Amino acid sequence: MTRISTAVDIRQLRYFVVAAEQCSFRKAADYMRVQASSVSRGIRDLEDEIGASLFQRCCSGVTLTEAGKSFLEGATQVLAIIEREAQQVSRVGRGEKGRIRIGVFASLSSQFLNDLIETYATLYEDVELEFIDGVPERHVAGIRQGSLDVAFLPGTNDWVECACVHLWSERMFVVLPVDHPLRRKRQVSWHDLKSEIFLVNEIGPWTMFEKHVVRRFVELGYQPNVRLHSVDRENLLPLVALGHGLCVTPESVTRLRRPRLIYRPICQEIIAFRAVWSPRNDNPALRRLLSLSRAKAV
Description:
Strand content: 15-25%
Number of domains: 3
Radius of gyration: 32 Å
Shape: rod-shaped
Number of helices: 9
CATH superfamily of the largest domain: Periplasmic binding protein-like II
């Protein structure tokens, strides 16, 4: 088998294929808007590299030799692959194709986040969206390490080496069993909750909210009554329904109705949610998502 030198370039292959289609170097040059001498010289150099004549030349034009016929099929396939890959790379560069790894902290049922993801997926259907649940510290570590592109997190923390933008806000709610005395109130205050037991999830992503409860009680001079449970959030809520204590949650989670639970807003408690990402992240698909999120936040 003849080994083709790396000196063969894409331009030579294009000259060859178009000349074969046009049966003329001059017509190929006109089609490609180059000089006829460039086509002739490029094909001659190609023949020298592969060590075979590809065309029979005559006054009326050119025809493929047997070697040329054999070479045409492969050359056409190579150019098709290059064109296809170039288009794919171009789409990735424009953010129309690729992958975004998204960290979430609270429920994806947030209206803002739900609408954002739905709109983005419609506009850029070839971008794969991967969602990772976890606590903010883990998400921020992933963003710094490059294993995560962006995270949507509550709070106003300024994370070192990260960029942030405020996108939406939600009220904070307390989760009550259906027969709790506070069910009669349309909203509750921290004073109403000062004697309640609060269930704290040690391993799930709601830990930040329980820390907020403790901080609020301390600020108001109350001793918080906290019980730790090493269960995930799916098992924490049934404990509330069974009367073992209360917990807090952002407003978006209240849309997920659960048996024997009710939700009441806590007076003047608003949670800010922000997008957090690395300014060094050059993922074009991420830039599209951030641009869309800012537009929706206006």
